[in-house]
Amino acid sequence: MNHIPQILFVEDDPALGLVISDFLQMDGFGVKLATEGIVARELFLKQRFDLCILDVMLPGMDGFELARIIRKADAAIPIIFLTARSLSSDRIEGFRIGCDDYIVKPFNSEELSLRIRALLKRCGVFSSVKVERQEYNLGHYIFIPKELTLEGTNGTQSLTRREAELLKFFCDHQNELLPREVIL
């Protein structure tokens, strides 16, 4: 079974956090979302993560301080700052602390995903990056997971996120006998 890369994602805006978490999960990552620096620190110390994405402006403990703690505990884990703080001095501070990338909001989700994959590949989390399929041909239908759509001769059907996740799971595990617990 393939290892699903685990990401600690720290974002103080819960709505934005959920949107990005959902996107990353649809893109094949496991994501743990925290909205406060102190909560994120506890999560990091209790669980194993392959990469951290940190906002800088966080309640309780800012992202720079959190990155220092993470860097002390694990010198090799990739850290990406994803923040609205765009000053050169903020970027320099982030890199001095030891971040691997610094992305300023607003940003492109697909670019974020590709940057994550590049970092994980470099640290050996994947020996080769699995490219997510953009679409699946299912007989007379085309399933496009990122758009949550199923296109056919009768038009395009919108899918719920759960329907798309389930259909993608079945597409990725064709001709495999899987227990019910794995599917649910």
What brief labels describe this structure?
184 residues, alpha/beta, Rossmann fold, 2 domains, five-stranded parallel sheet, four-stranded antiparallel sheet, 9 strands, 40% helix, 21% strand
Note down, in words, how this protein is organized.
It is a single chain. The chain is built from seven helices and nine strands. The protein has 184 residues and is an alpha/beta fold. The protein folds into two domains: 6-122, Response regulator (Rossmann fold, 3-Layer(aba) Sandwich); 136-183, no CATH class. A hairpin with a 4-residue loop joins strand 7 and strand 8 (149-152). The longest helix has 14 residues, at 109-122. It is elongated. The mean pLDDT is 89.
Secondary structure: elements and pairs:
Elements (H helix, E strand, L loop, with lengths): L5 E5 L3 H13 L3 E5 L2 H10 L4 E4 L8 H11 L5 E5 L4 H10 L3 E4 L4 H14 L13 E3 L2 E4 L4 E4 L2 E4 L2 H12 L7 H4 L1
